[in-house]
Amino acid sequence: MAEKDRPRSEYDYQEALACLECIQQLVGDGSDVARLDPLLMTSFYERLTTNLARLRAAEQHPPFRESLQALLDECQHQQAKILRICRRPPPAKAASAARKDAAVRDGGGDRRPLTAPHRSRLRFSDVAGLEEAKASLAEAVIMPVQFPHLFTGGRRPWTRVLLYGPPGTGKSRLAAAVAGEAGAELFPVSAADLLSSYVGETEKAMSDLFARAASRQPAGRAVLFVDELDGLCRVRSGREEEHTRRLKTHLLQLMDGLLSGGSGGAAAATTFLLAATNCPWDLDPAFLRRFQRRVYVPLPDRAAQRRLIELHLGGTATSLSELDWQQLLAGTDGLSGSDLAELTQHALYQPLRELETATSWRRLGDGQFMVCEPSHPDAFTCSVSDIPFHAVVARDLQLSDFLGALRTTGPSVSQEMLRRYEEFSKGRGSATSLG
Ligand SMILES: Nc1ncnc2c1ncn2[C@@H]1O[C@H](COP(=O)(O)OP(=O)(O)OP(=O)(O)O)[C@@H](O)[C@H]1O
Ligand SMILES: [Mg+2]
């Protein structure tokens, strides 16, 4: 049957199915929702529900109605996920703030677990550039797992490494990749979460956390990742609350336990503490000193920028020539990893935005349809709503998509901030100390 002769309801059904597939793929298991655009997800969802409503209103055939119901159920399931994404405040900081508010309201704090340990699927190859940081971390975490016999006598694995650098340079991603590479369980926790826990219970929760991480053997080491460390470990001041001071002292003791094998004995040595901060200069020297390695995570260089864009394209086809890449990378100086991830997302949606307004289309050999110039010999005039949803193909990405996105993406890290990191690196950063 020719595409245009198929019943409209079947088109709608196929379209709904394809739309749902897109949503399922984008949302996935909900673990990496930070990169999703809530507006886009809402518009996908609205398009899907409108479509299903139209179908259900028109359709009389019982088996077809049944499969529509199944589709609708799945759609509602995905909607719940989308709503969670749209309502989700930005990670860690806002979540902690919300919990803090609740704590004030309730006269106490929340008692949920501090972390949800998991196995990370990320690998070093999923992190663009940062070769020095990767090498340091491989030495610290992966080599002792691969070659335990080499880490005997005086040669002991690093147990505490600090990652510092501008926002959005891949510190959290790197932490997940280290755990993934080492086959270790990742225990992510934010310092702000620690602080917002129930007063008096936090020390216990912290001890439990370290003990839980240490008990993850012999399957492999555990990576305990404390994000936004400066939230907790700032230089101590006289005005500091007693609660915070006690917490810091307790954390210092737990960190010492990691180095010496501590009260956890050999088990404690299987835990690797990784911490991250944007403000290393704010850290209390007592904490700084305890990190055996302090690793700078800088902005990506040109090669890393290209790899980063390629990673975030996720295999989507482009027509970029070598010359195009050069032109694109000439405009990305100073952009961080997250700036580039955002830029790539903008560029990726450009061909989709054109679909809505396109009026010239051509049919490809395999029954699919693509936007084309009106002057194309096979061009015919119609709008996207006249074409079965599943048969619509987006064009390859081109340089202009990136250049367009570049106009709205600027560096999020200032030159002054970069100078501050460099100064810190010259002084107290990156050096190896046995603390
Ligand atoms: N080197 C990189 N390789 C791949 N993706 C990266 C890299 N750097 C940043 N990104 C992307 O940028 C976003 C932010 O990265 P990430 O959260 O790891 O940064 P961060 O350094 O931890 O930032 P912050 O200091 O604000 O916590 C993620 O979407 C991540 O995929
Ligand atoms: Mg981070």
From TrEMBL:
Sample GO molecular function, one term: ATP binding
Coiled-coil regions listed in the entry: none
Domain (AAA+ ATPase) ranges: 157-301
Keyword Ribonucleoprotein: no
Gene Ontology BP term (one): vacuole organization
KW Signal (keyword) present: no
InterPro entries recorded: AAA+_ATPase, ATPase_AAA_core, ATPase_AAA_CS, MT-severing_AAA_ATPase, P-loop_NTPase, Spast_Vps4_C
SUPFAM superfamilies: P-loop containing nucleoside triphosphate hydrolases
Region (Disordered): 91-118
Keywords annotated in UniProt: ATP-binding, Nucleotide-binding
Residue ranges, compositional bias (Basic and acidic residues): 98-113
Pfam families: AAA, Vps4_C
Family: Belongs to the AAA ATPase family.
The protein, known as: Vacuolar protein sorting-associated protein 4
Species this chain originates from: Amphibalanus amphitrite
